[in-house]
Specification:
Strand order of the largest sheet: 1-2
Mean pLDDT: 90
CATH class: Mainly Alpha
Distance between the termini: 28 Å
CATH architecture: Orthogonal Bundle
Structural class: mainly alpha
Shape: globular
Largest sheet: 2 strands, parallel
Low-confidence stretches: none
CATH superfamily: Winged helix-like DNA-binding domain superfamily/Winged helix DNA-binding domain
């Protein structure tokens, strides 16, 4: 598998109702230093129906203003449809992040 395929495989495992940060995806894909590459891979994702890239947010829980499917509001809509809740600052609440074991 190439790097993008590893990233897509990880993102495909994020369950409905949860999110992951770019850094978490990078760690799970095997290289914690490739957060920017994760962002680029998701930006060029050719199979959004199978790779739910909208479930990846920044480390603060903020959605992308350049979300590939119609801006940040669309990403938020998709997350809310999954059951994800946001705080008063517009950030995903912490309890909706997946847990990566090396972060404990």
């Amino acid at each position: 598998m190439n790097t993008f395929e590893h990233i897509y495989a990880v993102v495909s495992t994020i369950p409905r109702g949860k999110v992951a940060s770019y850094g978490q995806v990078a760690r799970l894909a095997g290289n914690p230093r490739m957060s920017r590459i994760v962002g680029y891979a998701l930006h060029v994702n050719k199979n959004p129906g199978h790779v739910p890239c909208y479930r990846v947010v920044n480390r603060f829980g903020e959605v992308s203003s350049a979300f590939a499917f119609g801006g940040g509001n669309r990403q938020r809509e998709l997350l809310e449809a999954d059951g994800v809740q946001f705080d008063e600052n517009g950030r995903v609440k912490k309890e909706y992040f997946i847990v990566v074991h090396d972060e404990l």
